[in-house]
């Protein structure tokens, strides 16, 4: 199973961070919660959403669930 980071935005379209894939949900959650990874996550979010939108959700979802929610190829 592949788990990915899903980002919901206030005004923009939600998206997944496709270059970060994890074997388990716990591995994904640990990555997101680790302060050492905040710079990398910020760069990935800014690259897609820019600076002016508000993040409303950061979740670790199974790849199939992301496809269901947004249809994004990951």
The separation of the N and C termini measures 13 Å
Determine the structural class based on helices, strands and strand pairing: alpha+beta
Q: Please state the overall shape, judged from the principal axes of the Cα atoms.
A: globular
Radius of gyration (CA) equals 12 Å
Q: In sequence order, what are the helices and strands, one letter per element?
A: EEHHEH
Share of residues in helices? 25-40%
Query: Mean pLDDT score, rounded?
Result: 92
Structure, explained:
Helix content is 39%, strand content 31%. It has helices at 25-33, 38-49, 63-70, and strands at 3-9, 15-22, 55-62. The model has no long low-confidence stretch (mean pLDDT 92). The protein is built from three helices and three strands, in the order ββααβα. The protein has one domain. The protein has a three-stranded antiparallel sheet with strand order 2-1-3. It is α+β, with helices and mostly antiparallel strands and 74 residues long. The two termini are 13 Å apart. β1 (3-9) and β2 (15-22) form a beta hairpin. The chain is globular.
Write the layout of secondary structure elements.
Layout: E1 3-9, E2 15-22, H1 25-33, H2 38-49, E3 55-62, H3 63-70
Antiparallel strand pairs: 1-2, 1-3
Key terms:
alpha+beta, single chain, globular
Summarize the entry for a quick read:
This protein is an alpha+beta fold and 74 residues long. It has helices spanning 25-33, 38-49, 63-70; strands spanning 3-9, 15-22, 55-62.
